[in-house]
Amino acid sequence: MAASHLPLAAAPLVIGSSTLRNRLVATAHASGFIRDGLPVGGDAAYWGRLAAGGAALLVCGGTTVAPESAPRQGNILQLHRPEAVGPLRERVAAMHAEGAVAVCQLVHLGRETLGAQSYYAPVAPSAVRSPREPTAPRALLGSEIDEVVEAFRVSSAHALEAGFDGIELHAAHAYLLEQFLSPRTNPRGDGLEVLERVIAAIRGLSADALLGIRFSVDASEDVALTPDELAALLPAVDPLVDYVNVTVGVRTTYVRDMATERPPVLDDLARLRPLVTRPLVASHAFRTAASIGDALAAGADLVGMARALIADPDLPHKVLNGRAAEVRPCVACNEDCRTFDPVLLCVVNPDLAPPGEPRRPAAPLVGAWDPARATGERVAVVGAGPAGLECALSLAHAGVADVVLYEAADRLGGQLATAALAPHRAGWAALLGFYERGLSAASVDVRLGQTAEPGAELEGFDAVVLATGAVETSPLLEAGAVASSVALARGVPSLAGAAHVVVADDGFGWWPGCDVAELAVAAGVPRITFVTPGTAFAGAIPPESRVQLLERLSGTCDLEILPLCTATGISPDGVTVAHRTSGRTTTVPADRAVVVGERRPRGALDCAAPLVLTVGDAVVPRRVAHAIAEGREAAVRIAAAVRQRMPHSRAEPLRPIQPN
């Protein structure tokens, strides 16, 4: 952050009847600790932990106002129900106890079902189908608009009864209030009148309660307000609210992934600032001190974040106290934080956990466990992929005296470093930077380009953690194909000059095949054939990422998708493809073939140390989240064993970031 804006970020701000302790906002998201539409154990602790991290204003999201807007699985808070008030009091008390101002965002989804099943028909101002839905909604009758207004009033009353300091109206992301405001979904033109009625109903409940409103600033093909429409609307709404929160996108585009490297609303602040007299909140993709400073310099009064605070709830304290380098970064992978399976989780933050767990569940493979044989505090971590990096850093933070990290390559990161080289996937590099800075600050002995052997290198260690990763294998490699990991590591030169590239996917639709397709585009390959045994291209990556990926690929090359097909061989004529449905075999002429192979653990090292644990892909190749969680768990177990064996040692308990 520019030094000239650091004091502003830390400065208090009076907003309505409340005083915020700084300019950082936790924007609307949900904890996932919701069952049958009501908060359960863990919810209050999550919000209390978030408030303890230093954000001044916490906006609780995932809150619907009417039965027809609530998915039937009940994982979204239903605030129209009076029985929600009691458990919400605990949530608010937890936030207030840590000095935060608590606001509840209210939404009616209207024609947007979030892809979830509902007991009721979707409704909207008119029967205009959303491009994200298979059918058009039912148009609201005139009397039902009164019911919508009343639904917002009742839910607001319940929120204020629970102790919330205010309400934020969700008029963004193509949900019902924006559907009313957009001429493309409300030909009656009474959207502002409906919004004014909702605002008046809430104002009638309390003269002191904060009232904010959220808008999307970018136009969409179907509903979102155009820049001119938003510019005309803001002066009318501004006097009616206490703050305006601006974000981006509709349902499938509002959560940008790591391909978006700069907060998109920064480009809109110069246009919006003169239209708003109230405090202006700039939201979305703010993850660094520098971008926070950019927003404040451009005229924002407050800067909002959600995923960045899920990754590290202490980000506000760290940034405002000159410790931004210690922030565990959100990489915008859109994986665990978007699934709520079973609650809000985070790939990079192993301290977010399901109810009753101290951290994300993980089970390192135990090769040896004899604490009585440990005579000191020397730990070797073999492999500097995400599992090894997390383990080494956690051990250092625990106070284990002597941690040595071996890495055969000349760089940290393992396969994660390779993934960070893929086009539009540089978010992983931020995580590797965090580990590199942390290891350096903790004086961990990092030995790059050195292979740890069972003999001299590992002799004398009390514990050894094997994080040696996995290798990519495929029968097609011997026939002339290039492994996806190799192609990505070599970058554009690996495909430069090719006229036609065949990507042989493994059928599971995850990132490696998608990354190779984008690498081919970056290399200027005019024709790409994507062969997959699965039913779709990119079928397993997060839905928002898939939408953004397809937008990036549109019009860039001749990309042909062959689903339900398997690449079975390579010859001078091209790649042999077996078609699952017809049983026939064809040859796709191509001058390069890249295969997404199966990943298998590297051969295990024999080790005679008293404590031996294997973690990450060296156990079974999976996702980054598994590697980080197992690395943390291994560190916790080893630190506990050291403390138990030597109660007067220098090892201290781990101090994890614990939201629950």
Question: How would you characterize this protein structure?
Answer:
- β14, α8 (269-272) and β15 (280-283) form a beta-alpha-beta unit.
- α4 runs parallel beside α6 and α16 runs parallel beside α17.
- The strands form 9 sheets. Strands 3-6-9-12-13-14-15-16 form an 8-stranded parallel beta barrel, surrounded by 5 helices.
- It has 19 helices and 32 strands.
- The chain has 660 residues and is α/β, with parallel strands linked by helices.
- In the N-terminal section; belongs to the NADH:flavin oxidoreductase/NADH oxidase family.
Spans of 5+ residues with little confidence (pLDDT < 50)?
648-660
Strand content: 15-25%
Distance between the termini: 30 Å
The number of helical runs is 19
Overall strand count: 32
The radius of gyration is 26 Å
Overall pLDDT level: 93
Shape: globular
Alpha-beta classification: alpha/beta
Query: Biggest β-sheet, characterized?
Result: 8 strands, parallel, barrel
